[in-house]
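Researcher: We plan to redesign the surface later, but first we want a full-length starting point. C-alpha cells attached.
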C-alpha cells in the first residue's frame, strides 16, 4: 500500500491541534460574566443595543431605505438630501461619542412672512412652552445616543441632553414645578437613557438636584435652562453618549441644519398622539432679525430660531428640553413656539446653549456628588473586570504567537525531522523522498 502525504499538511494540522487545545483550556477559565459591562438589573436593555450594524455601508443602506420609504413626508429633494448627510455623520464605533460631517450641501435659507397671530410672552411661553416634534420620522437611540426622556409620575414630561455621565441639560420650564412650592423637597423626576422608547428599556436614574441660572424667572422664556444632577452616573457606551458644549463665540450660519429629536406630539395641534419611539426632524437656522418679525415680544440673544418657510416640520408638545444638534455639538434646547406646531408664521424657538456654557461647566465643577451612590461600586467592579479580561486576552494572544513561532522553528529543525522518521520506522514504515512528497510504504505489503 502506498500513501502520499503532504508534509506541509501534517505541519498545519499539528499546529492547529496544539493551538485549539490551548484556547479551549484557556476559555474554561473565564466565567460567563467576564467582559460584560454592568446593566441596570431593573430595566432590560433596549433591543437597539443588540442590533449593531456591521459596517458603515450597512448603516447607510438602512438609513437611506428608511428615509426614502417615508419621503412623502418631506417637501422636496433638498430635505431628503440634508437628512442623509446629517444621518451619515455619526461614526458608528463603540468609542465615538461625537459626529463627523463629510459633506455639506444646504438649501436656500427660508424667510418667514410677517403676518402672524397676535402673541406675547405670557401667552406664547406659558401656554405652549411644552414643545414637540411634527413632520419628523422615527429613529433609533443608536443614532442619537445623547438623548434622554424625562418622566414624572410615570408619564413622559420633557426631553434632555447628556453633557456628562451624571448631568443632563434641559429647559428651565420643564423643571419649573419640580418643587411644587416646597423648595426643600424635590419632586420625583426620572431620566431614561440608552433607549429608543420613553417608557421602557435602557437605563434609569433619579434627578437629585436641579440648578437654574440666576437670571431665570419662572414664566419667562429668557434664560430657559436647567441643569440636572443625577443620583448615579450613567454607563457611557454605544447607546449612551455625551454631547459637546459649544464655546461662547460659536458661530452659526442661517443655512445650518439642526437635528431636533424627541418623543413629543406628532399632531400640529400639539395635543395629539405622543409616540413611544424616538423621532427626529431637521430644521434650518434662521436669522434672529427674521425671527423677531414673527413674534411681538423681544427675541433675546439667549434664543435661536429654526424652521422652514413652508412650515410642517417643528418641535411640538413634550419635546421641550430636547436637543438641537449640529456636528455633535449641542447648540439649542427646545423652548417654545406658536399656537400650531409647524406653523410657517411662527418658527420654533430654542435656548442658545453657547450663552451658558461657562455657567454649566462651573456648576458641574462646584457641585459634584459628595457621596458615592450605591450603584457606583458595581460600575467600578464591572470596569475592573473588563480591564482584567483585556489583560487576559493580551496574555493569551502573546502566548499564542510564541507557540506559533516555536512550532514553526521546531518543524523546520533537522532534529525534529529525524525524530519523526525514526518514529515512523518504529511503527513499521519507511520514507522515500519523491517530488516533495514522502511516500510511506508498509513493509508487510511491499
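Model: Full-length starting sequence:
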Amino acid at each position: 500500500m502506498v500513501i502520499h502525504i503532504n508534509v506541509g499538511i501534517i505541519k498545519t494540522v499539528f499546529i492547529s491541534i496544539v493551538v485549539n487545545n490551548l484556547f479551549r483550556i484557556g476559555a474554561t477559565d473565564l466565567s460567563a460574566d467576564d467582559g460584560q459591562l454592568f446593566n441596570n438589573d431593573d430595566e432590560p436593555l433596549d433591543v437597539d443595543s443588540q442590533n449593531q450594524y456591521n459596517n458603515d455601508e450597512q448603516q447607510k443602506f438602512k438609513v437611506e431605505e428608511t428615509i426614502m420609504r417615508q419621503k412623502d413626508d418631506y417637501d422636496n429633494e433638498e430635505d431628503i438630501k440634508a437628512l442623509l448627510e446629517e444621518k451619515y455623520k455619526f461614526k458608528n464605533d463603540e468609542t465615538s461619542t461625537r459626529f463627523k460631517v463629510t459633506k455639506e450641501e444646504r438649501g436656500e435659507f427660508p424667510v418667514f412672512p410677517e403676518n402672524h397671530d397676535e402673541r406675547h410672552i405670557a401667552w406664547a411661553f406659558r401656554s405652549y412652552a411644552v414643545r414637540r416634534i411634527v413632520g419628523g420620522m422615527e429613529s433609533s437611540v443608536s443614532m442619537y445616543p445623547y438623548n434622554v426622556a424625562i418622566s414624572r409620575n410615570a408619564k413622559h414630561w420633557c426631553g434632555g441632553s447628556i453633557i456628562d455621565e451624571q448631568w443632563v441639560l434641559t429647559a428651565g420650564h420643564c423643571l419649573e414645578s419640580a418643587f411644587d412650592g416646597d423648595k426643600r423637597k424635590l419632586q420625583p423626576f426620572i431620566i431614561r437613557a440608552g433607549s429608543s422608547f420613553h417608557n421602557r428599556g435602557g437605563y434609569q436614574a433619579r434627578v437629585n438636584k436641579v440648578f437654574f441660572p440666576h437670571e431665570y424667572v419662572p414664566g419667562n422664556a429668557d434664560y430657559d435652562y436647567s441643569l440636572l444632577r443625577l443620583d448615579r452616573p450613567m454607563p457611557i457606551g454605544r447607546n449612551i453618549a455625551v454631547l459637546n458644549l459649544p464655546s461662547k463665540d460659536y458661530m452659526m450660519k442661517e443655512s445650518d441644519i439642526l437635528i431636533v429629536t424627541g418623543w413629543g406630539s406628532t399632531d400640529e395641534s400639539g395635543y395629539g398622539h405622543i409616540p413611544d419611539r424616538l423621532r427626529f426632524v431637521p430644521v434650518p437656522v434662521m436669522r434672529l432679525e427674521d425671527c423677531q418679525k414673527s413674534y411681538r415680544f423681544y427675541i433675546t440673544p439667549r434664543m435661536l430660531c429654526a424652521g422652514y418657510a413652508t412650515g410642517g416640520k417643528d418641535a411640538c408638545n413634550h419635546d421641550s428640553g430636547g436637543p438641537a444638534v449640529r456636528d455633535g455639538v449641542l447648540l439649542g434646547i427646545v423652548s417654545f413656539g406658536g399656537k400650531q406646531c409647524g406653523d410657517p408664521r411662527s418658527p420654533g424657538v430654542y435656548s442658545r446653549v453657547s450663552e451658558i456654557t461657562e455657567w454649566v461647566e462651573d456648576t458641574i465643577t462646584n457641585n459634584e456628588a459628595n457621596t458615592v451612590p450605591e450603584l457606583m461600586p458595581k460600575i467600578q467592579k464591572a470596569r475592573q473586570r473588563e480591564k482584567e479580561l483585556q489583560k487576559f486576552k493580551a496574555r493569551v494572544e502573546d502566548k499564542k504567537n510564541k507557540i506559533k513561532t516555536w512550532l514553526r522553528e521546531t518543524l523546520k529543525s533537522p532534529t525534529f525531522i529525524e525524530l519523526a522518521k525514526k518514529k515512523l520506522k518504529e511503527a513499521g514504515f519507511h520514507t522515500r523522498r519523491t517530488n516533495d512528497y514522502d511516500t510511506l510504504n508498509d513493509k508487510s505489503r511491499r
